[in-house]
């Protein structure tokens, strides 16, 4: 790329969001930052190679993403990140104080099924969808990382199955718990409301929509909207597609998702 010497370099945003491109917990934070106009740069990590950065940045003995790196330190765990944003950027329109307890109750309900959603999708796509999964896991990888993931895939898949308890019984329980959350959301929406709490868009909506997005597959999302993802990963979720909850997720995305300013959709393969 050629730089015009008279044009100043764009300032580097103070925040870096470390994610997996396909992580629904990461999507919740990405969406909150985008919708709140908070500038950030996104770094999509590659599974396995995320372990050390997540451990060292999080300092909590946890390897999960997202992690938000700020000039004041790094925050791991999406509810903690939301709390930090509220404390440092408040008052935030997405987290109105008057409705905060209810917003957090709704968010907890959907955070609680995040692992079930991952368990359910992988349980139904390991084997038949391996090529697509390898692509998802290497999309943002450097060439040497991608080569490692492809070679070690059987071992990584085995470790994944153990960590996420991906068994027939685990998938059946995940199905049941996701079903309960979808039932709850259908009931909540039955009075014709658009927003889950307080008549306005809040992190309750963003959390519910993000955590269900891998099942609803809104076309605005660069991973879940991909027709191959829809078929390979989310095919098992077909019975839920007709439910009002899934239409609501797609509607939230169509109305409110907007641009992903951290660059996830554009991230080139690491050099
Ligand atoms: N409670 C965490 C859960 C995040 C989570 O489970 N992230 C998954 C990706 S969706 C992850 O990082 N898995 C890899 C690992 O645990 O090492 C949050 O809300 O941020």
Count of DSSP-assigned helices: 11
**How are the strands of the largest sheet arranged?**
2-1-3-4
- Mean residue pLDDT: 94
The percent range for strand residues is 5-15%
Verbal overview:
This protein has 271 residues and is of the alpha+beta class. It has two domains: 15-97, Glutaredoxin (3-Layer(aba) Sandwich); 99-257. Helices cover 53% and strands 7% of the residues. The chain has eleven helices and four strands, in the order βαβαββααααααααα. Strands 2-1-3-4 form a four-stranded mixed beta sheet, with helices on both faces. Strand 3 (67-70) and strand 4 form a beta hairpin. The chain is globular and about 50 Å long. Bound molecules: glutathione. Glutathione is lined by residues 20, 23-25, 63-66, 77-79, 111, 118. Glutathione (GSH) binds at residues 20, 23-25, 63-66, 77-79, 111, 118.
Q: Which terms would index this structure?
A:
271 residues; alpha+beta; Glutaredoxin; 4-stranded mixed β-sheet; 11 helices; 4 strands; 7% strand; globular; disordered C terminus; binds glutathione
Helix-strand blueprint:
Layout: E1 15-19, H1 24-36, E2 40-44, H2 51-58, E3 67-70, E4 73-76, H3 78-89, H4 100-111, H5 114-125, H6 130-138, H7 143-163, H8 168-189, H9 203-216, H10 227-232, H11 244-257
Parallel strand pairs: 1-2
Antiparallel strand pairs: 1-3, 3-4
Bound molecules: glutathione.
């Amino acid at each position: 790329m050629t730089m015009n010497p008279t044009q100043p370099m764009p300032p580097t945003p103070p925040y870096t969001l470390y994610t997996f491109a396909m992580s629904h917990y990461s999507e919740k934070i990405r969406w909150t930052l985008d919708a709140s106009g908070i500038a950030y740069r996104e770094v999509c990590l590659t599974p396995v190679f995320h372990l050390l950065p997540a451990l060292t940045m999080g300092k909590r003995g946890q390897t999960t993403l997202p992690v938000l790196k700020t000039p004041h330190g790094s925050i791991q765990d999406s509810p903690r990140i939301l709390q930090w944003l509220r404390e440092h950027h408040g008052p935030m329109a997405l987290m109105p104080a008057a409705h905060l307890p209810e917003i957090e109750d709704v968010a907890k309900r959907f955070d609680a099924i995040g692992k079930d959603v991952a368990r359910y999708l992988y349980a139904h796509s390991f084997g038949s969808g391996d090529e697509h999964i390898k692509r998802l896991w290497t999309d943002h990888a450097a060439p040497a990382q991608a080569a490692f993931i492809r070679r070690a895939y059987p071992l990584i898949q085995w470790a994944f199955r153990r960590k996420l308890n991906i068994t027939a019984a685990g998938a059946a329980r995940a199905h049941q718990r996701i079903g309960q959350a979808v039932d709850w959301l259908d009931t909540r929406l039955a009075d014709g409301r658009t927003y889950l709490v307080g008549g306005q868009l809040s992190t309750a909506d963003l959390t519910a929509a993000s955590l269900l997005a891998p099942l609803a597959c809104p076309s605005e999302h660069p991973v879940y909207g991909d027709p191959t993802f829809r078929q390979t990963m989310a095919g098992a979720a077909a019975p839920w597609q007709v439910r009002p909850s899934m239409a609501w997720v797609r509607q939230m995305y169509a109305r409110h998702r907007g641009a992903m300013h951290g660059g996830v959709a554009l991230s080139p393969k690491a050099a």
